[in-house]
UniProtKB/TrEMBL annotation:
<protein>
    <submittedName>
        <fullName>RING-H2 finger protein atl47</fullName>
    </submittedName>
</protein>
<dbReference type="GO" id="GO:0061630">
    <property type="term" value="F:ubiquitin protein ligase activity"/>
</dbReference>
<dbReference type="InterPro" id="IPR001841">
    <property type="entry name" value="Znf_RING"/>
</dbReference>
<dbReference type="GO" id="GO:0005634">
    <property type="term" value="C:nucleus"/>
</dbReference>
<keyword id="KW-0833">Ubl conjugation pathway</keyword>
<dbReference type="InterPro" id="IPR051834">
    <property type="entry name" value="RING_finger_E3_ligase"/>
</dbReference>
<dbReference type="InterPro" id="IPR024766">
    <property type="entry name" value="Znf_RING_H2"/>
</dbReference>
<comment type="pathway">
    <text>Protein modification; protein ubiquitination.</text>
</comment>
<keyword id="KW-0862">Zinc</keyword>
<dbReference type="GO" id="GO:0006511">
    <property type="term" value="P:ubiquitin-dependent protein catabolic process"/>
</dbReference>
<dbReference type="Pfam" id="PF12678">
    <property type="entry name" value="zf-rbx1"/>
</dbReference>
<keyword id="KW-0479">Metal-binding</keyword>
<dbReference type="GO" id="GO:0008270">
    <property type="term" value="F:zinc ion binding"/>
</dbReference>
<feature type="domain" description="RING-type">
    <location>
        <begin position="78"/>
        <end position="119"/>
    </location>
</feature>
<dbReference type="InterPro" id="IPR013083">
    <property type="entry name" value="Znf_RING/FYVE/PHD"/>
</dbReference>
<keyword id="KW-0863">Zinc-finger</keyword>
Length: 137
């Protein structure tokens, strides 16, 4: 995995810098869970069209609910789980049709399709780039 090699190279580079020579190392454990969206008998291109990536999620408008009135203004009820928005919930809005859902509900929904749960529109923009971008600080 390229990410693991890059992370190890980054850590070695940082530890080799003179200004970091007197610092104590902190062990870090990274756990990955790899999920595939390809269904049995499905072409890879079709699965990639449905794949939801971090870039696609970043492209969705998200709002943290600060009060009940604000939450009700965003959506009366999540059409995926049939629950009303509560204070602290994160609400995601689809790119094209602007339908709103609990963020965690929409992510689960988008694992199986790229369509909005309410209408036939695509839930997120296809112009977004596949893959992950990591910022090393």
């Amino acid at each position: 995995m390229s990410f693991i090699r890059d992370a190890v190279a980054f850590a070695r580079n940082k530890s080799a810098q003179p200004e970091n020579a007197n610092l104590n190392p902190i062990p870090v454990v990274v756990d990955f869970e790899v999920r595939t969206v390809q269904q049995e008998g499905e072409a890879l291109d079709a699965a990639m069209d449905r794949a939801i990536t971090a870039h696609k999620l970043r492209g969705l408008e998200r709002v943290r609910v600060d009060d009940v009135e604000q939450g009700s203004g965003l959506m009366e009820v999540c059409r995926i789980c049939d629950r009303r928005p509560a204070v602290g919930d994160q609400i995601s809005v689809t790119t094209w049709c602007k339908h709103a859902f609990h963020s965690h509900c929409l992510v689960r929904w988008l694992e199986g399709t790229n369509k909005c749960p309410i209408c036939p529109d695509t839930a997120y923009g296809s112009y977004l780039i596949l893959g992950l971008t990591f910022e090393m600080v």
